Automatic annotation (TrEMBL):
PANTHER family linked to this entry: 4-CARBOXYMUCONOLACTONE DECARBOXYLASE FAMILY PROTEIN (AFU_ORTHOLOGUE AFUA_6G11590), CYTOPLASMIC PROTEIN
Residue ranges of domain Carboxymuconolactone decarboxylase-like in the record: 50-122
Protein name, UniProt field: Carboxymuconolactone decarboxylase family protein
A GO molecular-function annotation: peroxiredoxin activity
InterPro entries the record matches: AhpD-like (IPR029032), CMD-like (IPR003779)
Source species: Kribbella sp. HUAS MG21
Pfam families found in the cross-reference section: CMD
Length: 184
């Protein structure tokens, strides 16, 4: 149950935001409803997400696995639910997405994919637990540009996951494509 109201007065701005969300995702996203309580926060979030959507140096599967591993580490059910839907539509292998909560025991991943998820979880720990060895392992296969994008993607997912979890957002039904659950 959300810890903040998801309903708003039906202003032109609210109607426009809801229309845009329905058009793109088929429904009004709960995080958008939360951010509508503060238009400056909403605007900043939309600008950040729009800019991040243009990051393209990192392989989409590596990006997806890093984001999903971070969301799982935080325990954000909304993020896992929506993340699976989003990455499913970006043609990331569904078997890899489904196995994220148990990635250490799954055989569907390459060594690089495992290193990416380990890095994402280490970044997400409080305080961060990233080691020089983890970074060097990634640098064997990623350019500096890709490593920076990976780090930024995990940081952005931490922003999302921690915000949504703190505000009590839960799965919104995107998981009709999967059965992912947060891992703590």
């Amino acid at each position: 149950m959300a810890r903040i109201g998801l309903e708003h007065r039906r202003t032109w701005f609210v109607r426009l935001a809801e229309w845009g969300s329905r058009r793109r995702y088929g429904k009004v996203l709960d995080p958008g409803r939360v951010w509508l309580h503060n238009r400056r926060v909403l605007t900043t979030f939309l600008l950040l997400e729009g800019s991040a959507g243009r990051w393209k140096t990192l392989d989409p599967t590596l990006n997806a696995l890093a984001v999903m591993a971070a969301a799982g580490r935080v325990g954000c059910g909304w993020c896992l639910d929506f993340g699976y839907w989003e990455f499913h539509h970006r043609a990331v292998d569904p078997a890899k997405l489904r196995a994220v909560p148990q990635w250490r025991d799954s055989e569907v991943y390459t060594e690089l994919e495992r290193a990416v998820m380990e890095y994402a979880e280490a970044m997400t720990a409080t305080p961060p637990e990233v080691t020089d060895e983890q970074v060097e392992r990634l640098r064997a296969d990623l350019t500096d540009e890709q490593l920076v994008e990976l780090t930024a993607a995990v940081s952005l997912e931490n922003y999302r996951s921690r915000s949504y979890s703190a505000l009590g957002l839960t799965s919104q039904g995107f998981k009709e494509y999967c059965d992912l659950r947060p891992v703590r």
